[in-house]
Amino acid sequence: MEAMEDESLDVRDDHNHNRCPGKARPYPSGEPGTGRGRLRSGGSKLVDSDSGSENSELGEPDSAAPPAAADGKFTLDSTSKFLLNAMAVEDYRKNHWPNLEKAIDRLLVQNPTDHISVSYAQIYSYIYKCVCQQHSELLYNDLTAKVTEHLQQVSSQLQTSPPENFIENFNVALTQYMASLQCIVPVFMYLNKFYIESKLNRDLREDLMMLFADHVAEKHVNTLMPLLIEAHSMPFQVQPSTMASVVKGLYSLRPEWAQLAPALFSGFIPQINPPAVESLLPDYAAHDQKLQMELSMNGFPRGDQSRKRASDDF
């Protein structure tokens, strides 16, 4: 009994004062009581948790890395990702967007009859890379900002347009913008498919048309509508093709604008007016006779009169 107490005392002395020559390994600094060296339940044998089969009798393996170390690794990874993302954004700003911006500028200012030399394959390649590098939102914002800037300049130019040329100038701006969209929307197809449609649930063409409505048409509709009504009441004051282009363009931008001048819009767009009723047939006939009279007064022949019946006089 005394021998066992002496042996136990020696072990405790080694535990506290590191005097044991070889029976047990001292605890590492800062890890007391972590199970690195334990006394078996019998109290007679010191078991090292690193030693093979003896470790299975202790009950608990070594714990994982301290949370502080894991936190430090997470912080390092987050910093690395942030720096990589910042480098990617810088590459987008320096290399991709400047080339796209130049191409968009050229497409926005082109005339419908002009031929502009633009490498659509190269533009598409830039857009593809931007989307793959997760710059879709950045690219979309830059595109809409660039188009908005252009439309604000168009609106300022229309502001100084004289009334007699306003309808024609508005038609030029609308026609030119529509022609630009015919080029811009296809090359941004990848952005439209994988960001605008899938994440925003919208369409690029509709968004760009809305920009024209907000920044150009809506600002000048109160000036444009009275001029259109006046021109419609005086045939051929404005070219019919120009009138049709402007009225149909306004209707495509905001269908509710047709309610501002139903008679004007019904002359170019079907089903604007309510369905015909029998009681208004005399009014319809009078309107047709007036139109025929105006056409004949402006030099439009009525065709071959030799086969005309006597009852065809208006």
Task: Describe the protein in words.
This protein has 314 residues and is an all-alpha fold. The chain folds into 2 domains: 8-52, no CATH class; 85-274, 5 helical Cullin repeat like. Helix content is 62%, strand content 2%. It contains 10 helices and 2 strands; from the N terminus they run αββααααααααα. The protein has a two-stranded antiparallel ribbon with strand order 1-2. α2 (67-108) runs parallel beside α4 (136-159) and α5 packs antiparallel against α7 (204-233). The longest helix is centred in the first third of the chain and has 42 residues, at 67-108. It is elongated, with a radius of gyration of 41 Å. Residues 1-13 and 20-74 have low confidence and may be disordered.
Taking pLDDT < 50 over at least 5 consecutive residues as the criterion, the unreliable ranges are: 1-13, 20-74
What's the story with the biggest beta sheet? 2 strands, antiparallel
State the separation between the terminal residues, measured CA to CA: 139 Å
Strand content: under 5%
Average pLDDT metric: 77
CATH class of the largest domain: Mainly Alpha
Write down the secondary-structure element order. HEEHHHHHHHHH
Number of domains: 2
Shape: elongated
Based on the coordinates given, report the CATH architecture of the largest domain: Up-down Bundle
Oligomer: single chain
Kindly report the spatial arrangement of strands forming the biggest sheet: 1-2
Structural class: mainly alpha
* Number of E-state strands: 2
Kindly provide the radius of gyration, computed on alpha-carbon positions and rounded to a whole number of angstroms: 41 Å
Give the fraction of residues assigned to helices: 55-70%
Report the CATH superfamily of the largest domain: Cullin Repeats
The CATH topology of the largest domain is: 5 helical Cullin repeat like
How many H/I helices?
Answer: 10
